[in-house]
Amino acid sequence: MNKSAPPTETESPAKTSSTKPPVGRTWWWIAMASLVVPWLSQPPLGWWPLAAIAVTPLLLAATQATISSRQYAVLYLAAVGYWALTLQGLRFANPLIYPCWIALAAYLAIYPVAYVVVLRRLMRLGLAMVFAAPLAWVGMECIRNYMLTGISAVMLGHTLADVPSLIQIADLGGSYAVSLVIVVVNVAVVSAWRWRWCSTKGSADAANPFTPSIGSVVTCCIAALVLLSATFLYGRYRLRQPTQPSTTTIALIGRNEPVEYDQDRSRELELFDAYAQESIRAFQSTDETIDAVVWPESMFTGMIPWMAGRGDGAMARELGLSREEEQAMTAEHRKRFQFRAGSLQAMLAASNGPQATKPDIIGGCGVIDDGPTTKMYSGIVHVGAEGRVVDWYGKMHLVMFGEYIPLVKHVPIVRDWVPKNLGLTPGEHAKRFHVGPTTLCPNICIETAVERVAINHLRELKADEGGLPDAIVTVTNDAWFDDSSVITHHKRCAQFVAVACRRPILSAANNGPTAWIDSNGRVVDELPQGGNGWVIAKPSLDSRTSLVMTIGDWPARVCAIVFLAALLRPKSWRRRG
């Protein structure tokens, strides 16, 4: 028997052994710290210096000599508590969301436990923690950003959203790059602390295969210092690079209007009127000529969604109309929509500069596409200065359980029970809106909260002959989440997208982040959360191209493959371990 072999360990919570330690006081402290410290480092408190120790509870858990299934269960329950607290704002959207909120927390809690399992296995294979920990963390976050449509909110790197000099590396590897640096700093903290602890306890941890040596501690500390210094210097260099002024002025309109899934006609008209009046006040407040006004998601519908398609499809069959009758009805509907938009433009022009210029309207609006089947979209409609709809964009990345339920169309009982707007159709392509000399890439709601979606939109547009747009314009309706920290998380996602794409972001929100964010991720101007008003933005043009826009997130995907391989653990890995 090889006496130097490390003690056998059950890597999965599903396995038990009588030799496993009970859940002791130390483990309870680790579990509670894994809940409290990351929560304090993120909104609503946002104590970003705590990012330096936000991962230490999980790293300490991974370096225990053995872990029992009960200890894993306690760690999982703590993770459920963390995610339930962090995303508690989701529950305000609708009573139907309550079970979805708890289910989402239970699902996301799997990742911290899986991270501990994977990290232990990588270290048992001989990979030093200073390499294994960031690799596993990036892989874990990448999987979370793809699994079940993905969620990029509350990534570890987002803790530093308010420290511009430390987030500029997001143009190299997205939010993953910032998370990687934070994890390396956490590894240095844990290594130094454990070495100090073991040296005072003598041989107490002699049987622990993860006990650090003085050499490994020095290596971890040097790696953290070098990486953190390089990140800061790169950030300062990027922040000093100049941008070009823009000649386009855009008004972002935001209000705090309560909304419901099933709103009656009068409420939709009230919303339209409230935003029309706010827009008029915005134009009256400045002497500048405003080129475009942006309304939040769905606020421009006002009982008249935009009708796309040729008017010879499913709607005729449903209403019993001939092809000619349906086309006439569609044409009349479009005429009404554009007449209303033109009337609004005329009112805004009365206060728009010395020449009374009619502004473009970029409004979040429902879109109905009548073809062989009737499709409904959460969309953005671009109305040109002449009062005609130039183009429209259909939201490509829908919110699961918020805008669609998987397989709901195939279950008649459920289909008749859920609200109608849970049956939206995803859009097909990214779009480019032209406002004078400036081009804008439209996004809607969660599309800036799932980082890869916004990045892929720009990469798609970069590949065509029009090149990269000058800015991203996003509209959202965050009134579903009351005044919770979910809104701040959404804004932080947009800040990182701005850095990753090196494009300013113009966000108009109903009770959400109505903000002008520059291409360095800094908030230039914004409305206070829950307030009514506007932001007049003149986004600077940035000619820089980021590495992320060139290669995408492939480095993170490689880490995800390693993470999954360690989690599934092929037989050859088991024999070596």
TrEMBL record:
**Principal location listed in the UniProt entry:** membrane
Q: In which pathway does it act?
A: Protein modification; lipoprotein biosynthesis (N-acyl transfer)
**Highest taxon of the lineage:** Bacteria
Give the EC class as a word.
transferase
Membrane topology term: Multi-pass membrane protein
UniProt lists compositionally biased (Polar residues) regions at 1-20
GO MF assignments: acyltransferase activity
InterPro entries with a match to the protein in the record: Apolipo_AcylTrfase (IPR004563), C-N_Hydrolase (IPR003010), C-N_Hydrolase_sf (IPR036526), LNT_N (IPR045378)
Alphabetical UniProt keywords: Acyltransferase, Cell membrane, Membrane, Transferase, Transmembrane, Transmembrane helix
Q: Where are the transmembrane segments?
A: 47-65, 72-90, 96-118, 125-147, 167-193, 214-235
Q: Which NCBIfam families match?
A: lnt
| Function statement | Catalyzes the phospholipid dependent N-acylation of the N-terminal cysteine of apolipoprotein, the last step in lipoprotein maturation.
HAMAP family per the record? Lnt
What name does UniProt use for this protein? Apolipoprotein N-acyltransferase
> What is the scientific name of the source organism?
Stieleria magnilauensis
